[in-house]
């Protein structure tokens, strides 16, 4: 079963991805991980991608798709995979579907975790991290006993730059731009299941796993 998972930063996508992979018995494939692995190992595709990135150019859709399908061709993904962070354009979606169909497969399902931006901003901008041990807190849901002091090691608890509101909103804008470019096309050609990501982790997991059952 080949599945695409969409979800904005802060939607709990990592938690749900693990649940999907455990249930379906498929690997979790992240485009970020694929890029880092190919760049680190200096593969032909990695060098090709690097040639564009070093010039500040976007890596062409065809190259991105080649990186992903090279991973999909590995033995552990023969029975399907969960794709995270791909596709991001209509061209990538079409190339992916073509490759899968050439190999007797298809895009079987798209799961989209839906959470309003204001909720995501509150979730992410409220996060705090210990500089010493990396323990994480939240100003609303899980604050340290003493403000600014880690419960675990007594280190300083701060807000990371990535969790500042302006950074969070910029990341969300990028996500919406990417999904707006591809989700309409996918909705016309593939079963797309929207899941309310504002519910509890267990409720979201049940809804996500229910989507794996035949329609």
Task: Describe this structure as you would to a colleague.
48% of the residues lie in helices and 15% in strands. It is an alpha/beta fold and 215 residues long. The chain has a five-stranded parallel sheet, sandwiched between helices. Helix 4 runs parallel beside helix 5. The model has no long low-confidence stretch (mean pLDDT 95).
Topology, element by element:
Blueprint: E1 2-6, H1 13-24, E2 28-30, H2 31-41, H3 44-53, H4 61-72, E3 81-84, H5 90-102, E4 109-114, H6 117-125, E5 127-130, E6 136-138, E7 157-158, H7 165-189, E8 192-196, H8 201-211
Helix pairs in contact: 1-8, 2-3, 2-4, 3-4, 4-5, 6-7
List keywords for this structure.
single chain, 15% strand, 215 residues, 8 strands, alpha/beta, 48% helix, three-stranded antiparallel β-sheet, five-stranded parallel β-sheet, 8 helices, Rossmann fold
Q: Provide the spatial order of strands within the biggest beta sheet.
A: 2-3-1-4-8
How far apart are the first and last residues' alpha carbons, in Å?
Answer: 14 Å
Instruction: Work out the helicity level.
Output: 40-55%
Q: Major beta sheet, specifics?
A: 5 strands, parallel
CATH-assigned fold name: Rossmann fold
List the domain count as a whole number: 1
Low-confidence stretches: none
Distinct helical segment count: 8
Structural class: alpha/beta
CATH superfamily: P-loop containing nucleotide triphosphate hydrolases
What would you report as the Rg, rounded to the nearest angstrom?
19 Å
CATH C-level class: Alpha Beta
**Amount of beta strand:** 5-15%
Count of individual beta strands: 8
Annotated CATH architecture: 3-Layer(aba) Sandwich
Order of helices and strands: EHEHHHEHEHEEEHEH
Principal-axis shape equals globular
Average pLDDT confidence is 95
């Amino acid at each position: 079963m080949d599945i695409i998972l969409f979800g904005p930063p802060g939607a709990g996508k990592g938690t749900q991805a693990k649940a999907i992979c455990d249930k379906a018995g498929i690997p979790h494939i992240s485009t970020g991980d694929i890029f880092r692995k190919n760049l680190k190992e200096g593969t032909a595709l990695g060098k090709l991608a690097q040639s564009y990135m070093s010039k500040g150019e976007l890596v062409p859709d065809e190259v991105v798709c080649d990186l992903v399908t090279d991973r999909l061709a590995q033995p552990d993904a023969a029975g399907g995979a969960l794709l995270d962070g791909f596709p991001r354009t209509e061209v990538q979606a079409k190339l992916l579907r073509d490759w899968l169909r050439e190999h007797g497969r298809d895009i079987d399902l798209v799961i989209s975790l839906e959470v309003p931006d204001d909720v995501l901003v509150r979730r992410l901008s409220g996060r705090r991290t210990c500089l010493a041990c990396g323990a994480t807190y939240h100003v609303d849901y899980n604050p340290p006993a003493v403000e600014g002091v880690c419960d675990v090691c007594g280190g300083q608890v701060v807000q990371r730059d990535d969790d500042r509101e302006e950074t969070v909103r910029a990341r969300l804008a990028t996500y919406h731009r990417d999904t707006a470019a591809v989700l309409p096309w996918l909705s016309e050609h593939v079963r797309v299941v929207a899941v309310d990501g504002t519910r509890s982790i267990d409720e979201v997991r049940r809804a996500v796993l229910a989507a794996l059952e035949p329609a």
